[in-house]
Each structure stands twice: as C-alpha cells, then as structure tokens.
Amino acid sequence: MRPADKLSHVGLKVTTPRLKVLHIFQTHERHHLTAEDVHRGMLDQKSDIGLATVYRVLGQLTDVGILSRNVFESGKAVYELQRGEHHDHLICLECGRVDEFSDDVIEERQRSIAEASGYALAQHQLALYGYCPACRERKTKRQ
Amino acid sequence: MRPADKLSHVGLKVTTPRLKVLHIFQTHERHHLTAEDVHRGMLDQKSDIGLATVYRVLGQLTDVGILSRNVFESGKAVYELQRGEHHDHLICLECGRVDEFSDDVIEERQRSIAEASGYALAQHQLALYGYCPACRERKTKRQ
DNA sequence: TAGCAAACGCGAATCGCTCGTAGCTACGCC
DNA sequence: GGCGTAGCTACGAGCGATTCGCGTTTGCTA
Fold it and tell me: Which pairing describes strands A98-101 and A77-81: parallel, antiparallel, or unpaired?
C-alpha cells in the first residue's frame, strides 16, 4: 500500500507533514527514530515543519497502528514502522544501536504469568541492554 | 545491616537526608516510590529537604546498588530497595499498582538471545502492562 | 577540635514533550 | 472545477520531571 493510501485507509487526511514523516521512516537506514531524528530529517530535505507537528504526527500514526512507540533507558521515545509481528529489543549501551528479536517461549511465559497474577495483559515491553558486537570489540582493543 | 552501616559500607557519608530516604523506603507500605513520593514523605515528617537533594540521593543510592530504578510507561522514574534477587514488574494501567514476579525460564531465554546476537548482556527490563484484579472487577461492575 | 572535601539547599535551567490558537488546506459536495 | 468546513499545521508559550550552579553547611579524619 502506498503511503497516501495508508493514511486515508485509517481515516487521516493526506497531508505533507504526514507523508514526509512516513517517507523518512521508509528511507532511513535505521528503523528506530526519535522525534528529533525525524525533525532533523525534515529540515535536511528543506521541509520547514515544526517539532510540535512532528510529535503530533508521530502520535497520530502510533494511535492508528502505523508506527509503534518505545521508551528506552535514555528517557526519549523512539518510533518505528509497525511491520505486523510483535518483537522486542536489544539495545547497545555504548552506541545506542537497537536490534530486534522475538521469542515465542518468552511471549508464552508472559501470558501465563499475567494470568496467574489475575492481570488482564494489555501490552508489554522487554528490553535487553548490553554491548553490541562492534562495541565489545572496540573495548577489547582499547585495553 | 543498619542503614548507617549500609551507607558507610559503600563509602557514602552518613547524612540526615540519606538516612531519611532509606527510612522512608523501609517503612512505606508500597515498595515502589517516585522521587515525589519520597519528597512528600520527607515533608510529612517535617524534614525540610529539597526535591533536588532527594533526586541526588536517589541517584547515589542507585549507583551503589542500595536502590534500583525503573522507568515505566508514565515517564516517571520509580525507585525500590534492592533486595538481592532480580525481579520484573506487572503494572496496572488503571491504578498504577506494581506487582513483582520472577521467572527463570524467561531469564534463561534472555541470556541465550543476547548471546546469539553477540551482545554482552548488562541488564534488562521486562514490564507487563495490564489491569489488576481489583480494577478488572471494578470495570465489570461499571458496565 | 580544626580543616576540608563532600554534601546540601534552593532557585534557575534543561529536556522532552504538549497546548492554545490563529491561520491554512484536503476533500466531499455541488 | 469552485466552495465550505472539519480537520490540520505552525509557532511560541507552557509543563512536568529532572539536573545544574554555587554559596553554605556538615561529616569525618588528623
């Protein structure tokens, strides 16, 4: 589905800021972007869009399920295109790189733990923090 | 170990604000407190301690491992006494209640996932969000 | 108990994010 | 294709959580 169709499909008007935001997510080398990353991307391509608008658009796209939002250690929110299947994150404490993984065993355990505690599970967040292969190597050399 | 010994043991001076913070954690009915909860607790017992100091103390106690820090959905940091064993959290989206659990299967899977991706695992955070038994009941009645 | 580094207190500053509002625009209807 | 309006956007002010700067105070050691 083309970006414009995606938007009208969920009942959002097709506007320049929304298309630009989607475009940035689709073309950026990283999958996980902060509001500021997106905003900077806008300015780079000479689109004079306010940061507040970026936040608003990110929020709307998240609400309709086109994007998903995660808050990691740093305290900043990062957004990514929602590509269907759920996944969790591995975050490098050194360079900020984010990798993804999904694990059925963990998902299943989560469900039964919630059930055992009487909770109706709505969502979850699992983040593993550590040092990625590249940063580990860099560290070893330094010593 | 008494609070004062705990402090000197990790090389922190034994000061009034630090003792009061520890005291509040040890006597409060909830385990998970925000900086503001702690600050309010201080004021309640007529200790005129600045919010900035509360934050500073919470940070130091976390650094030395006496407290641990978590940031949940709300965006606020919550602190709790570190009682040895690691555990994860179940958070009620309605009333903010926090329960704890730990699961060896999940821990083990996390380790192997990190290893498989080449990451050196440093820490992790797993938070399950949902509705606690009390809030579920309240919801049912309301309808 | 004197001295000094460490810790405090408090207001101002920062940071990520949201609101208020006045002006603009996509898009369904003629 | 032109119009009207609900829905959008821009931008600065505002907000809540947290941190900083710095003058004052206080544990702790010699």
Answer: unpaired
From the CA of A13, how many Å to the C1' of D2? Answer: 20
How close, in Å, is residue A49 to chain B by CA atoms? 26
- Which residues in chain B are closer than 8 Å to A112, comparing Cβ atoms? none
Backbone angles phi, psi at A49, to 5 degrees: -115, 135
**Helix H segments across chain A?**
3-9, 16-27, 35-44, 51-63, 104-116, 133-142
Residues paired with B130 in a beta bridge: A121, B92
Task: Return d(Cα B80, Cα B62) in angstroms, integer.
Answer: 9
The two beta strands, A120-131 and A88-92, are parallel
Q: pLDDT digits over B104-130, tens only?
A: 999 999 999 999 999 999 999 999 999
**Interacting residues of B63 by C-beta distance below 8 A, sequence separation 6+:** none
- pTM of the prediction? 0.88
B17 three-class SS: helix
SS3 A79: strand
Picking from A106, A108, A109, A135 by the largest number of B CB atoms within 10 A of its own CB, the best residue to mutate is A106
Q: Tell me the nearest-neighbour CA distance from A2 into chain B, angstroms.
A: 32
Instruction: Kindly report, residue by residue over B24-69, the tens digit of the pLDDT.
Output: 999 999 999 999 999 999 998 888 889 999 999 999 999 999 999 9
Q: Is A43 within 7 A of strand D by CB distance?
A: no
Residue A48, CB, strand D, below 7 Å: yes
Q: Give the rounded distance of the alpha carbon of A68 from its chain centre.
A: 5
Strand C and B52 CB separated by under 7 Å: yes
Q: Residue B32 has what pLDDT?
A: 95
Whose C1' is closest to the CA of B15: which nucleotide?
D27
